[in-house]
Amino acid sequence: MKKVAYDSYYEEENYFGNPYPGLVAFFTNIEIRGTVLDLGCGQGRDALPLGNLGYKVIGVDHSSVGIEQLNQQAKLQKLPVEGRVGNVCDYPISAEIDIVLLDSMLHFYKNDLAKETQFVEKILTELKGGGIFVNCLLKGQQREDTLKHIIEKSPFEWDILLDDYTEYKEANAEFHLFAIKKRS
């Protein structure tokens, strides 16, 4: 299998640390306990804790090293979590998916803006009615406004479930947590 940049990062166990406290709190408190599609799941920083909360999780990442580690941990912990190697931008969002999670996948840098906009538009289009889109983004007004603008111009109606910040002490940073539910 072709080696990708993140493979070398994932040689260190738990490279990106623990999940954001606000993200765990959100998933703990929402009523839906369905299937989560964690796009860009890496080693399972979010997927494994979500499995522990009772969610079925499908994690997709282009790093076979990260996915192998995720699957080993899921098996060891007997969690309903499955990692798959794939291109997150092209991965289909089937009707079984209740929640799509992007954690630190979007940055909206100038060179990535068109590609990331298409990626979000694809998610918004393919997500079923009643489905939830959860995004974690490094705090920054321009990035946050860009995401909200993409959502506002989509042809679908959305209910905002979460629009808040969470402190991530491990990286000395704050992240914007934004969760929306697609109206049926």
TrEMBL record:
<feature type="domain" description="Methyltransferase">
    <location>
        <begin position="36"/>
        <end position="131"/>
    </location>
</feature>
<protein>
    <submittedName>
        <fullName>Methyltransferase type 11</fullName>
    </submittedName>
</protein>
<dbReference type="GO" id="GO:0032259">
    <property type="term" value="P:methylation"/>
</dbReference>
<dbReference type="InterPro" id="IPR029063">
    <property type="entry name" value="SAM-dependent_MTases_sf"/>
</dbReference>
<keyword id="KW-0808">Transferase</keyword>
<dbReference type="Pfam" id="PF13649">
    <property type="entry name" value="Methyltransf_25"/>
</dbReference>
<dbReference type="GO" id="GO:0008168">
    <property type="term" value="F:methyltransferase activity"/>
</dbReference>
<keyword id="KW-0489">Methyltransferase</keyword>
<dbReference type="InterPro" id="IPR041698">
    <property type="entry name" value="Methyltransf_25"/>
</dbReference>
